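User: ATP binding protein. Structure?
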Amino acid sequence: MNTLINNNNEFNKKKLVFIMGAIGTGNSRLFVDLATHFRGEIINSDKMQVNKGLLIVTNKITHAEKQGVRHYLIGEIEPDSNFTVENFCLKFNIYIETILKAQCVPIIVGGSNSYIEKLVEDHVLMFKHKYDGCFIWIDVEQSVLNRRVDTRVYERVNAGLVDEVRKIFIPDADYTKGIRLSIGVPEMAKYLRVEKNIDGDDESKKMILQASISSIKRNTCKLICNKLDKIQRLVNEKMWSVHHIIATDVFKEDRIEVVDEAWRNTVVQPCLDIVERFLKK
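Assistant: Predicted structure:
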């Protein structure tokens, strides 16, 4: 079923859908589900995924996972650039009009809530005057997310994370801006700096590599905490109206068929209903 966006409400506001949530909550799967159902197009708001390169480290959505849905701001920015929140807002203004002219539903996704907050709260941009936003927060219990982080980090290491970082590794590079800020790069750079000085001592290399992997896990868990705190602040202090979908039970099972059914019932169907009502109201 395709539902075209209706922008002719009484305030003539343009309707946008925002998907929020921490790492490991299934956001990318959800926004593709919504986009294929409602004829949507995606604007990425993840600070690291806007940059070119490091597909494994930044966990960019693959061509197959996109299922033909058009994405903006994925891998568009030069990796050494300092892409600011102001830059994001300028890009957003361009892409949002492109999507609306195509009579598609704009879906803004990604983990960088500072980008989204600036976009919505900035008086100069007049977001609240021009747009009507539907905010959906996919939430998973922290302990479950932490376990998923362990699995996801090892999957990325096995997929080639170390070699991917090695290709861009420069010992004295600036790791405070651009794509080198991505979790996985500074931690692995520490390993790569000492790797060259340990000749033939494979056991020492393994220990140092394991320490770097542990740092990636630890910093990812900290990032998850920070993201959840920011969303809570937007809800409790900024008084944003956010649809809160709790998906913890989806990720407690390991069997794929059980997970898929739980995902459809617990996450996808409620979100389809929320967006359907939002677009038609």
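The domain at 146-218 is CATH 1.10.287.890 (Helix Hairpins). The first strand starts at residue 14 and ends at 21.
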